Amino acid sequence: MTRPSDAARPLAGVRIVEISSFVAVPLAGMTLAQLGAEVIRVDPVGGAADYRRWPLTEGGESIYWAGLNKGKQSAAVDGRSAEGQELIARLIVDSGVLITNAVGRQWHSYDALVEMRPDLIHVEVSGRADGGTGVDYTVNAGLGFPAVTGPPGLADPVNHVLPAWDVTCGLYVALAVTTALRHRDATREGQRTSVALENVALATAGNLSFLTEAMVNGVARERIGNSIYGQYGQAFTSADGASFMVVALTGRHFRDLTEMTGTTKAVAALGDAIGADFTDEGQRYRHRDALTGLFTVWFTGHTADEVAGALSTTSILWERYRTFAETAAAPLVTDNPLFRVLDQPRIGEYLAPGLPLAVDGHHRPAVAAPALGDHTVELLRDRLGLSDAEIDRLVAAGTVA
Predict the structure, then answer these.
(1) Element (H, E) at 125
(2) Does the residue 256 lie in any domain?
(3) Is 280 a catalytic residue?
(4) Same domain, 28 and 172
(5) CB burial class (10 A; 0-12, 13-18, 19+) of residue 240?
(6) Considering 320, 346, 371, which residue would you say is the last residue of a domain?
(7) Is residue 296 part of a domain?
(8) Which entry of 192, 255, 271, 397 is 20 to 30 Å from 97 by CA?
(9) Of 166, 185, 335, 374, which is the active-site residue?
(10) pLDDT for 224-256, tens place per residue?
(11) What single-letter DSSP state applies at residue 6?
């Protein structure tokens, strides 16, 4: 049973091997590490495909790699050699859990490893449901989201810069591990789980009705720019050029918006003229352009500070648009207990997010990411029982680094 002091580390004592690159599985591994698991990331000697991924420091260190591998241990092993494969397999068997997006490798497949560890938990991520390759941006292109992203009237598809399916898939992988651990605790049985990035995206599109709308109503979602489908929401610009996102989801929100902008009578007159009932959210959405025209007059007549001050006194949902640089310097980050100063070797000190979950009111702080191969010798000696002479031989042969 988890002691109260361990509430923020429910996976303490769990060991996991991660063979991965890019976003989904590294995010899963980091999340599991933040929950207390000991996560060993195994990379090829010299690093996997994402070891030098942008953004880089001036010295060529990957800020991206450090960001997704916080709190892990790192082993660098030549997985192309038979001896290297045997070492990695032994680490997996010792740990009892493998998460990977390196598919199609028989030597670390479930069938090969379960012979050595019957209660193995094996979670494998593929790009597509048929086992084919795919990444977030190619999967997203085939779903339909780029066709409805961007301003109205645009003919070309627009990719979103957030790899949403990678992030969602990574969290599904972490969930798969935690549920498999519960199953193993209850039955002493392992579990083989496969997760297709494409299926994660398809399930989400279906659950949010994007696909179902086309099936049931026979219509395709339209491009609406910064508006919100089925609700009233719109971006406005102040007199001094600042942009705000304003959202009125409820009747109260909408009433406050009309009162703040001094358009209560004008909105009522508009409703009478076109036969619209603006107490209905669907009517507010359908006639959003006409309503926006009324509200825009007020926003363009006030400065950013005046807009922010007025919005702050209402129930309206709103936020000022920021750049990443502005957000990084804002209290949203600098005064947020989620962020602590992290001294990341090779990169420097910066505010890094810990576990987003607040357990008993506290966030577990971030732990620095290792350098490639930082823990290779320690793992070979302590986990696999190799002698110093054996490890020296493996290093000299280039099997480990």
Answers:
(1) strand 121-126
(2) yes
(3) no
(4) yes
(5) exposed
(6) 320
(7) yes
(8) 397
(9) 166
(10) 999 999 999 999 999 999 999 999 999 999 999
(11) G
